[in-house]
Design a protein that fits this description.
By secondary structure, the protein is of the alpha/beta class. The chain has a single domain, classed as Alpha-Beta Complex (Maf protein), CATH 3.90.950. Helix content is about 35%, strand content about 25%. It is built from 5 helices and 7 strands. A 7-stranded mixed sheet has the order 2-1-3-4-5-6-7. Strand 4 and strand 5 form a beta hairpin. The longest helix is centred in the C-terminal third of the chain and has 24 residues. The chain is globular. The two termini are about 15 Å apart. The model has no long low-confidence stretch (mean pLDDT about 90).
């Protein structure tokens, strides 16, 4: 089965492909650009799940192919859950990962409570109207300065106490095992496996 990922984020695509490979799913995932589509859905949802559904439906409407969307972000307790669904747009359109991190650390100056969580919601929509959803959460702490060279986004300032490393200090294998997206994709993968099995049985 072929799926379009409603994103051109290479990091997301690589992580999803890696985890699908681990789960041994007979499924091919390509970015919307690889599939020949340029889709910019307006993310008007109030939650990660709502935004993921908006993006997945836009890709499905454009392509007619089953489409997967991930909407994820960082929720910081000291900031009342911000940046939340605005994580990708924190600091304004066009701001780099480094700009977002600098703004986050500036807004947290003097904050003693530094608990935070990464959240990932995955939604897959099919041409027949079926929908699969999953969510993953990763708890951590916001560092006072970036650490590590791997990953992307807020990874350099997201610290995992149980591992003693920032998300950006993890190998790809370590990150896929513990990250919010890794957990969400594995949960989604299991649901997809059952869905594909059910459809195969229905076809026989």
């Amino acid at each position: 089965m072929r799926f379009i990922l409603a994103s051109n984020n290479k990091g997301k695509l690589r992580e999803i492909k890696d985890i699908f490979s681990e789960l041994d799913l007979d499924a091919q995932v390509v970015s919307q650009r690889e599939a020949g589509y340029e889709i910019e859905a307006e993310e008007t949802g109030d939650t990660f799940a709502e935004n993921a559904l908006i993006k997945a439906k836009a890709a499905l409407d454009a392509s007619g192919v089953p489409s997967i969307a991930d909407d994820s972000g960082l929720c910081v307790d000291a900031l009342g859950g911000a940046p939340g669904v605005f994580s990708a747009r924190y600091g304004g359109e066009g701001s780099s990962d480094g700009d977002k991190i600098l703004l986050l650390l500036k807004n947290m100056e003097g904050a003693e409570q530094r608990s935070a969580r990464f959240v990932s919601s995955i939604v897959c929509v099919f041409p027949n109207g079926d929908t699969l959803k999953s969510e993953g959460v990763c708890q951590g702490v916001i560092l006072r300065e970036p650490r590590g060279e791997n990953g992307f986004g807020y990874d350099p300032v997201f610290y995992l106490p149980e591992l003693g490393k920032s998300m950006a200090e993890l190998s790809e294998e370590e990150k896929n095992r513990v990250s919010h997206r890794g957990r969400a994709v594995r949960a989604f993968g299991e649901k997809l496996r059952e869905y594909m099995k059910g459809n195969n049985n229905a076809d026989k």
